[in-house]
């Protein structure tokens, strides 16, 4: 097998709070292969966005640190690489699209200015060439009337169109990895479907890998090849998309799926996972999902379970569920 | 059975500046009609700008409509006598909004917030009031000692429970819930949905349940109305609506929802965007995006008409067709 495009190994991220350093992400390890699409799903506080930011080291300096772990990309560790190298990678090799296109776009610059910025910085294009390329990119993200739209300011565009502009900026330098953090969460459902379709097409056209972060299992199911489920700063399950949705193995993943209201089938009372998501600095011994788990055993309250393979590429962090395959 | 809520030909237009000396109106609701019966939940779904929140605000008396009538418990809260009618029905009427952070005063203890409607109504003695607060906390599944704590000590899901407890303080009959779970995580969402359903059972509440999430609405509402650009395009019992949507927009909405099923054959995606309400399209407002558009859809407004018992759709495609 070829070397992965990006490899996260034991990535741990801590933030400074009033009460000292809090661990937001605790020992995350997974690979992203070329052209692969990895979906990362989890609820708030699960650490999915913090994990994504660590690929570009975009956390606020001074209030965050990486006590251990590595993010290997192109022979470098992105967690320790000099800022100068990172600046070359950001936007060129690894690009990012965020949830809220309005706060990511600069309101006083035209669409053309904002797309050109990346092109001129990374590819050294002159103003006229960058403008031509910006129009091509708007075409590529299916913005009608691109030659005219390119001179619009963001407030003239709808939410869906703004997100298309963000995507145009992100793919301007043909990145090898696109990180999309809840790219459709702020959008209406029909617009969400359009943007997901666009991302799917671009992924094939440009041959890029995608890391899609979402709280929505539906979005993940329809987009990802492989799914990482996060809970309270840890990966609890990692599986090919079909395997995950056909037979989820972690009780948290099971619970999440059962608590989703469905559009088909009988209408029954929803299953609700009891309790609440723990705060990042809440001390929980053993499995962090243990206090909410229907299947918790004595061992779960003592030992932190390891992420172990149960079959093929399906990994689960659950002591009872991995016992048979040599987990303990 | 007498409807608890009766809405007829509701219109709402906001002034939106002027163009060439003429005032411009933003017409956000256009001839909306529906009923809600005792103990019933009507789900109102639609995308942003469809007018669903404005409808909710009108029903609790926060916004005065520019046309049409609203009757609550048999009293008209529109037209002359609006103030007196609202004063008479206010105690039976409550609402729960999306953001539980914004809905609670961070400086007030939770017990104080919950008791506020009681204090305003002035109907309870101090002791009755405190008993009621404890009873309400229990009702929504919060620990009794929550009354002395502050909102920041609670998670989003718990805060929404506090907001619900406050809404129930005066034992209302009708509650407008505007996106009550959309700010919550999936696992919290299920808890709050179950709570709202349990409370309906116990107290015989009627809900107007406004949400953009079709699956959430399916879980709670016996009847569902689908809104598009200020109009109701389809309304039906939930079983019929989800199994056999009649309006092309309802179909498009349902198709667009991603399913937790990686093997699903994805239906074609509807193009275009919701039109501007400053200049809504002539004829059917969905005609600019409709895959089945015909010539008359561009000029003639389709009326919401009965296509089957208890089922209404506004679409020219169904004209002359036998009822489904």
From TrEMBL, chain A:
PROSITE patterns: ABC_TRANSPORTER_1 (PS00211), ABC_TRANSPORTER_2 (PS50893). Gene3D superfamilies: P-loop containing nucleotide triphosphate hydrolases (3.40.50.300). SMART domains: AAA (SM00382). Keywords: ATP-binding, Cell membrane, Membrane, Nucleotide-binding, Transport. It is found in: Cell inner membrane. It is a peripheral membrane protein. GO terms for biological process: peptide transport; transmembrane transport. Pfam families: ABC_tran, oligo_HPY. The keyword Transferase does not apply. GO terms for cellular component: plasma membrane. Residues 6-257 form the ABC transporter domain. GO terms for molecular function: ATP binding; ATP hydrolysis activity. Belongs to the ABC transporter superfamily. NCBIfam families: oligo_HPY. This is Peptide ABC transporter ATP-binding protein. It comes from Chelatococcus reniformis.
Automatic annotation (TrEMBL), chain B:
Keywords: ATP-binding, Nucleotide-binding, Transport. SMART domains: AAA (SM00382). It comes from the Bacteria. One of its GO terms (biological process) is peptide transport. InterPro entries: AAA+_ATPase, ABC_transp_ATP-bind, ABC_transporter-like_ATP-bd, ABC_transporter-like_CS, Oligopep_ABC_C, P-loop_NTPase. CDD domains: ABC_NikE_OppD_transporters. One of its GO terms (cellular component) is plasma membrane. It is a peripheral membrane protein. GO terms for molecular function: ATP binding; ATP hydrolysis activity. The keyword Transit peptide does not apply. It is found in: Cell inner membrane. Residues 5-254 form the ABC transporter domain. PANTHER family: D,D-DIPEPTIDE TRANSPORT ATP-BINDING PROTEIN DDPF-RELATED, TRANSPORT ATP-BINDING PROTEIN. Belongs to the ABC transporter superfamily. This is Peptide ABC transporter ATP-binding protein. It comes from Chelatococcus reniformis.
């Amino acid at each position: 097998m070829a070397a992965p495009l990006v490899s996260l190994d034991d990535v741990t991220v801590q933030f400074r709070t009033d009460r000292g350093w809090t661990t937001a992400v605790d020992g995350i390890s997974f690979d992203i292969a070329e052209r692969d699409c990895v979906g990362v799903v989890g609820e708030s506080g699960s650490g999915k966005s913090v994990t994504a930011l660590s690929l570009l080291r975009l956390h606020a300096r001074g209030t965050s640190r990486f006590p251990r772990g590595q993010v290997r990309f192109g022979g470098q560790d992105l967690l320790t690489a000099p800022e100068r190298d990172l600046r070359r990678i950001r936007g060129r090799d690894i690009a990012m699209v965020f949830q809220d296109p309005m706060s990511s776009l600069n309101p006083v610059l035209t669409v053309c200015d904002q797309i050109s910025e990346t092109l001129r910085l990374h590819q050294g294009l002159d103003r006229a060439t960058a403008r031509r390329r910006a129009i091509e990119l708007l075409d590529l993200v299916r913005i009608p009337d691109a030659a005219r739209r390119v001179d619009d300011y963001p407030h003239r565009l709808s939410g869906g169109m703004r997100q298309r502009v963000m995507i145009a900026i992100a793919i301007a330098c043909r990145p090898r990895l696109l990180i999309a953090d809840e790219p459709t969460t702020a959008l209406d459902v029909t617009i969400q479907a359009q943007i997901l379709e666009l991302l799917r097409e671009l992924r094939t056209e440009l041959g890029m890998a995608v890391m899609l972060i979402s709280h929505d299992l539906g979005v993940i199911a329809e987009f990802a090849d492989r799914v990482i489920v996060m809970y309270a700063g840890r990966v609890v399950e990692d599986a090919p998309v079909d395997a995950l949705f056909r037979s989820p193995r972690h009780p948290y993943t099971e619970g999440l799926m059962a608590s989703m209201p469905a559009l088909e089938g009988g209408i029954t009372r929803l299953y609700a996972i009891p309790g609440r998501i723990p705060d990042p600095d809440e001390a929980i011994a053993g499995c962090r999902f243990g206090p909410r788990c229907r299947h918790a055993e004595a061992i779960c309250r003592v030992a932190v379970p390891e992420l172990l393979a149960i079959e093929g590429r399906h990994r689960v962090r659950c002591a009872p569920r991995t016992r048979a395959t040599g987990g303990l | 059975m007498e409807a608890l809520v009766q809405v007829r030909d509701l219109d709402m237009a906001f002034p939106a500046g002027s163009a060439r000396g003429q005032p411009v109106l933003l017409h956000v609701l256009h001839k909306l009609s529906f009923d809600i019966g005792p103990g019933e939940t009507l789900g109102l779904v639609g995308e942003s700008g469809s007018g669903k929140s404005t409808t909710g605000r009108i029903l609790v008396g926060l916004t005065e409509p520019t046309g049409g009538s609203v009757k609550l418990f048999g009293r008209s809260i529109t037209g002359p006598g609006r103030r007196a009618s609202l004063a008479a029905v206010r105690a039976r009427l409550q609402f729960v909004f999306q953001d539980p952070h914004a809905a609670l005063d961070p400086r007030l203890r939770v017990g104080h917030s919950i008791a506020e409607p009681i204090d305003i109504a002035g109907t309870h003695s101090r002791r009755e009031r405190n008993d009621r607060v404890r009873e309400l906390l229990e009702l929504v599944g919060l620990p009794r000692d929550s009354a002395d704590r502050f909102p920041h000590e609670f998670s989003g899901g718990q805060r929404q429970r506090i907001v619900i407890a406050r809404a129930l303080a005066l034992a209302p009959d009708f509650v407008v819930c505007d996106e009550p779970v959309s700010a919550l995580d999936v696992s919290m969402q299920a808890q709050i949905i179950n709570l709202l359903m349990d409370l309906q059972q116990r107290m015989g509440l009627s809900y107007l349940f406004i949400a953009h999430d079709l699956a959430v609405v399916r879980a709670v509402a016996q009847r569902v109305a689908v809104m598009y650009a200020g109009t109701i395009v389809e309304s039906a019992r939930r079983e019929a609506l989800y199994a056999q949507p009649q309006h092309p927009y309802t179909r498009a909405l349902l198709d667009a929802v991603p399913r937790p099923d990686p093997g699903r054959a994805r239906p074609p995606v509807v193009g275009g965007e919701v039109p501007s309400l400053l200049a809504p399209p002539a004829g059917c407002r969905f005609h600019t995006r409709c895959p089945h558009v015909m010539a008359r859809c561009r000029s003639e407004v389709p009326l919401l008409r009965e296509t089957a018992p208890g089922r209404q759709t506004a679409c020219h495609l169904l004209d002359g067709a036998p009822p489904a």
